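Dear Dr. V.,

Thank you for agreeing to look over these. As mentioned in my earlier message, I'm a first-year student in the group and I'm still getting used to reading structure tokens, so any feedback on how I've presented them would be very welcome. I ran two proteins. I've put each sequence directly above its structure. The first is here:
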Amino acid sequence: MRTKNVVAVLLGMFLLPVAVVQAEGPQPGQPGYVDPQQQQYQQQQQPMGDPNAQYQQQQQGPVVEEQSSNQQAEEGRGVEYGGYLTVPIFLGSNADGIGAGIGFLGRIGWEFGSGFAAELNIGVQYNPFDVTIASGGITNAWGGAGLRYSFLNASALVPFVGAGLQLNFWGADLSGSGSTTNDSMALGFNAMAGIAYEISADLALEGGLRWDLSAKGSNDIPNKAQSYLSPFVGATLYY
């Protein structure tokens, strides 16, 4: 029995350290050994994800690109309102004694898209005159309709042309009395060319030149067909 006990003790003393080493893993100097302090340092150096990144991404939502003025004009912006100051200047031999005047033109239209717009317009103007037999001023109140075409492009500067018909109501203010009756009717035609500066999709500043041709008035005001040029400057609002 003693011999067996001695053998068991010797085997236990030999096998126990081997089992402990295998349970603990590779020891320093052995293949596969990892220093615990170095492993902890590497874990600390790993970048941590931003816990708010996913929340911020969810809050941003889809990005909507804003259309430019010309892109909206291509599709048509609908109703447009315009107002202009004009300087009517009569032309030809029938303009003798008639000086440069001042006027106002207002319009309301609809932009269909692709550069086309239809409009209704009204206007008033006053030109002083001084001839041998009389002096005073010539007045005109009128209303009409027309079409406009804009040459849309990638820049904010947009050239345009237009034309229309109108009904003029002429009158005369003799000797500057301030009394006039605009009951001399005459059919008229107009054409214009200008350029618009698109400040935004809702507002454009405009300037250009308009040409008007009026037939003889029903009460001889004017007593002959008249034509005049009107430089203009103003703005258009789009809705």
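The second protein is here, in the same arrangement:
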Amino acid sequence: MTRLTGWALALLVAPVAVAADAPYRTRDDMRLASGALIRLLLQEGPSRALSAARANSHRDDPKVQANLEWATQTLPARLAHLGSCHRVTPRDEAQFASSFMRFYFVLDCDQGQRQFMLTYRRKNDGWRLNQFYFD
């Protein structure tokens, strides 16, 4: 399966994939989960998306939880001035240090764009969300 086909599938089945709980086992699982989180953000807003992100994160890691708390406090205001958002475009993915995987997205809105980077980290029990970042 090509990367583009994988992304198309991830965006089509996104609402289903968010129900799959971490830890994730494969790159495809993470691709589906990251696409689902951004699609959930588009469809239901930051509160619901960040709640799902927290549920599938490294809950025992204070830095991860601090990042998600920052996103919860900051993202609504960062989206408000962009107006209605209507499209998610996957941009890239990268693996580094054998234990980290990143997925990049662009959210297109009436008054601009917001870029997202979701990083997953593999620990003992599999892959979980490690960072939810946006510009």
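From my reading of the second output: Residues 13-17 have pLDDT under 50 and may be disordered. The radius of gyration is 14 Å. Does that match how you would interpret it?

Kind regards,
E.
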